[in-house]
Amino acid sequence: MTASTAATRTGGAAVRTVGVVHVYRVFGTDVAALRGVDLDVAPGERVALLGPSGSGKSTLLSVLAGLRRPSAGSVLVDGDDVARFSEGRMYRYRAATGLMLQGAASNLLSYATPAENVRFARTGTRAALGAGRQVLELAGLHDERRTVDRLDRAGQQAVALAVAVMNAPRLLLVDEPTSQLDDDERDHLLDALVEATQQAGTTVVMVTHDEAVAARMQRMIRMRDGRIGAEGLRHEQYAVIGSDGSVQLPEELLATWPAGSTVRVQAASADEIRLLRRADESREQ
Ligand SMILES: Nc1ncnc2c1ncn2[C@@H]1O[C@H](COP(=O)(O)OP(=O)(O)OP(=O)(O)O)[C@@H](O)[C@H]1O
């Protein structure tokens, strides 16, 4: 399938990464931001990416957006490997993907009204225009006469969201959309995002530090040290076994089971694995 066919299909994109590695080279030093990310997001699913600062969330988002090519691994969107797209195909893929990165509001046309911003961003069909309009209506900005530079931050973020969903993307990638909003503003923006994407069946991947924001998505994925460490919902977290067989221990266990601890791994039953500390190490504790 070509990127342009993908853009005209309806519903959400299936996203799958396999062993994605990304290394930044800074003044001759390598910084491994992603160390083998295996991720599966079903069409129409809304997923939050959480994790400490520096864990690789924004890098993963930029790789999914086609803004960076990973150093290794595959980034499969509807089965096509974005990491291997030609420049032309990558350009079309980026254009068809909804993006709301940090500071997205600063890329709006500040001298135009919200509705004008949405109209100028339009590249798709008449139906697509509806998605952007819907967000403006939900934010009470459809008939707003003020230009974007005169709106408060919440209004500007709502316009940035409207522009991001404007062309009915099958995949919407969002980075910290609510970080500078108060609780009410945050909830309004998320209401608009969930409503617009739910109706269209859009797949959403959202980076956030805020558990309350993450709870509005259907699944939370936690990154640590450039890998997916755990996933689940607020009260139900599961460690994720990587394609290389590795498992990250929950953060709270690291104090008693520090890196370098050696353990025997025993299958207790079909549903249970036990970790047994080596005898001489437990004596040293
Ligand atoms: N452009 C860059 N050049 C060099 N190193 C980078 C660059 N961007 C990120 N890094 C490094 O890559 C690692 C992952 O960064 P990234 O921004 O993806 O993490 P993050 O989880 O999104 O962090 P935050 O929550 O603070 O935004 C960090 O060590 C960071 O310093």
UniProtKB/TrEMBL annotation:
PROSITE patterns recorded: ABC_TRANSPORTER_2
GO MF entry, a single one: ATP binding
All residue ranges annotated as the ABC transporter domain in the record: 15-250
Pfam families linked to this entry: ABC_tran
Keywords carried by this UniProt record: ATP-binding, Nucleotide-binding
Claim: Signal is one of the keywords in the record: no
Coiled-coil intervals, chain numbering: none
SMART domains in UniProt: AAA
Protein name: ABC transporter ATP-binding protein
